[in-house]
Amino acid sequence: MTNQLQGLIFDVDGTLANTEKDGHRVAFNQAFAEAGLDWNWSVEFYGQLLTVSGGKERIEFYLSQYLPDFKPTQDMTDFVVHLHQLKNKYYQALLRQGAIKLRSGTKRIIESARQNGISLAIATTSSLPNVIALLEKYLDLDWFETIGAGDMVAAKKPAPDVYNYVMEQISLPAQNLLVFEDSDNGLEAATKAGLKTIVTVNNYTKHQDFSQAALVVSDLGEPNSPCQVIQGDFQASYLDIVNLRSILST
Ligand code: XBP
Ligand code: MG
Is 91 within 8 Å of 23 (Cβ atoms)? Predict the structure, then answer.
C-alpha cells in the first residue's frame, strides 16, 4: 500500500481560486494609482508578467524589462516592498468584496478529503496574509495542516523549495501525496520535488507545456458541471476522492 492517498497539496493562485485577472492584477493597478504611477497592466499584458512567480518579483521583472531607466525616490527594495504591500491591501479588499471566487470542485474535494482522513496543505508563492484571507473567506484555516507561502522559502516556483518545505512539515512521503496546480511553473516545482500533479488550466495557462502532469483538466468539475479532459486518461466527468486514489496509484 505504498501509494495510498494520505494528503492533498493545493496551489492557490489559479488553482484554488481565479485570483490573477480579477484579483492581483486589479489590485496591482489600484496600488500603482495610489502610488502616483501611471502604469496599467491590461488583462493580456499581465499574462506575460505571470511568467514570473511572486508579486515583488513580478514588479522587479516589469521594471527590468519595460522601464529599465525608472528610478524611485526611495531605495529600490523599499519601493518594491511598499508597492507590494499596497497591492496586497487592495487584493484583500477585493477578496472581502467577493470579487474572487473558488474554482469549480475545489471545496467539494477539500471537504471530502477531510471526511476521508486525508491531510490538506497549501504550497504557494502568494504572501501568507493573502492565503489566510482566502481560506478564511471560503474554507477554514484549521482544515490545512501546513501552509507553505511567499517568502517562507528561499526560492519561489519553479524551484521545488515550497513543496519540499510542505512535505517536511506534513511528514508524508511524496508517493502518498497528490498536488493540484494550474501553471507550468507550479508543475515544474512539484515535479522537481517528486510529486504527482493534476493540472487545472485557466486562460493564462492553457497553452503551457504540461507533459509532466498526471492529468490535465479544465477544472475539477462538479456532478452537475463536468470537467473537460485535456491530457491523460480519465473517464469520469468530475474528480473525487475515489478517482484521485486511483490516479495516485497508477
Ligand atoms: C502565484 C503568483 C503570485 C501571485 C501574487 O503563483 O505568482 O505571485 O500573483 O502573490 P503560484 P503575491 O500560483 O504558482 O503560487 O502575494 O506575492 O503578490
Ligand atoms: Mg498557480
Answer: yes
- The verdict on residue 217 lying in a domain is yes
* Ligand 1 site, residue 25, Cβ cutoff 6 A: no
Task: Name the closest-CA residue to atom 7, ligand 1.
Answer: 53
Pick from 53, 81, 165, 185 the residue to mutate for probing ligand 1's pocket: most ligand atoms within 8 Å of its CB: 53
Q: What is the CATH number of the domain that holds 120?
A: 3.40.50.1000
Within this chain, do residues 85 and 72 fall inside the same structural domain, yes or no? yes
Pocket of ligand 1 contains residue 164 by CB under 6 Å: no
Q: How many domains does the chain have?
A: 2
Question: How far apart, in whole angstroms, are the C-alpha atoms of residue 49 and residue 151?
Answer: 19
- Render the burial of 224-234: b for 16+ CB within 10 Å, e for the rest: eeebebbeeeb
- Report the amino acid identity of residue 110: I
Q: Classify residue 177 by its DSSP letter.
A: E
At residue 98, the pLDDT reads: 94
Nearest atom, ligand 1, residue 58 CA: 8
Residue 49's domain comprises 20-96
> 30-67 pLDDT, tens per residue?
999 999 999 999 999 999 999 999 999 999 999 999 99
